[in-house]
Write a structure and sequence with these properties.
- The structure is a single chain.
- The mean pLDDT is 91.
- β3, α5 and β4 form a beta-alpha-beta unit.
- The longest helix has 23 residues.
- The chain is an alpha/beta fold and 270 residues long.
- The chain is 47% helix and 13% strand.
- It is globular and about 75 Å long.
- It starts with 7 loop residues before the first helix and ends in an 8-residue tail after the last helix.
Length: 270
């Protein structure tokens, strides 16, 4: 008799691989599309830790490899969002705080971001809206982001906000400055401008002006904080924290987040 020996970790992995499609189908069957978010926002966290803990066959554990794996996951995510009838997706690709990293890592990040937004544009399925403090980015990347937004403006698909060199505090400061500039250009006095200040007035100048606020904010990698993400927009959002690093984020994880959202009672201040 032929004996086959399988190591326990590999056996568990094989069992999971067999069961997850069944579990996924059950989640989809029970998902109430009438109660899914209109707008979801994601903090795509854990790329570098994923690479360190999952070396390549050649032993590569570089941050670049992790960022590349994370970028490749984005197209899958947008497919899942389409299937779930989500209308707006905001992806945090690069924090303003990340600009303090070493120049070699930043250079690889800029290249990966450029390749990613180009892939999103060429898919011709989604409207791409870049947002962030673009003046600190390389001029070539700035030009590419403006071109991608222009080329996808008329597409009837999911609105995809890509947050690059983004910080929540900086966004609010930028919105206030733009409000003051515009009101001052009308010849109004400081006292008159002060009378015009309101949440609604400032809200017209945030990066996502005219869009619904995110119903659900998802963060991967097990960290349970916002780190300044969408501070203005997320005041009534629901939050879901997932243990998986972003490159390991599966459709099952996504569906669990939607299920969790659907089971909550949203009071919205009432």
């Amino acid at each position: 008799m032929l004996e086959i020996t399988v190591e326990m970790p590999k056996l568990k992995s094989l069992v999971k691989s067999a069961l997850y499609p069944i579990y996924e189908r059950r989640l989809v069957a029970n998902l109430d599309l009438a109660n899914t978010p209109e707008h979801i926002a994601l903090i795509l966290d854990g790329n570098r830790r994923w690479s360190k803990e999952n070396p390549s066959p050649t032993g590569d554990t570089s941050s670049q490899r992790g960022h590349q794996a994370g970028a490749e996951k984005i197209l899958e995510l947008l497919d899942w969002c389409e299937e779930s009838e989500i209308k707006v997706v905001t992806l945090w690709l690069l924090s303003s705080d990340n600009l303090n990293r070493d120049q070699e890592e930043l250079a690889s990040l800029y290249r990966i971001i450029t390749e990613t937004v180009t892939k999103l544009e060429r898919a011709r399925r989604w409207q791409i809206h870049p947002m962030g403090s673009f003046d600190v980015l390389p001029s070539e990347l700035q030009s590419q982001l403006r071109e991608v937004e222009k080329q996808t403006a008329g597409i009837n698909g999911i609105k995809v906000n890509v947050a690059i060199a983004y910080g929540g505090r900086l966004e609010i400061v930028d919105a206030v400055r733009r409000f003051l500039d515009e009101e001052g250009a009308k010849g109004k006095s400081l006292d008159q401008i002060k009378q015009e200040i309101s949440a609604e007035a400032i809200g017209r100048y945030i990066y996502t002006a005219g869009q619904p606020d995110p119903d659900l904010v998802i963060r991967t990698s097990g960290e349970q904080r916002l780190s300044g993400f969408l501070l203005w927009q997320s005041h009534q959002s629901e939050f879901y924290f997932c243990e998986a690093y972003w490159p390991d984020f599966r459709k099952v994880d996504f569906l669990r987040a939607l299920r969790s959202y659907a089971q909550r009672e949203r009071r919205l201040g009432r």
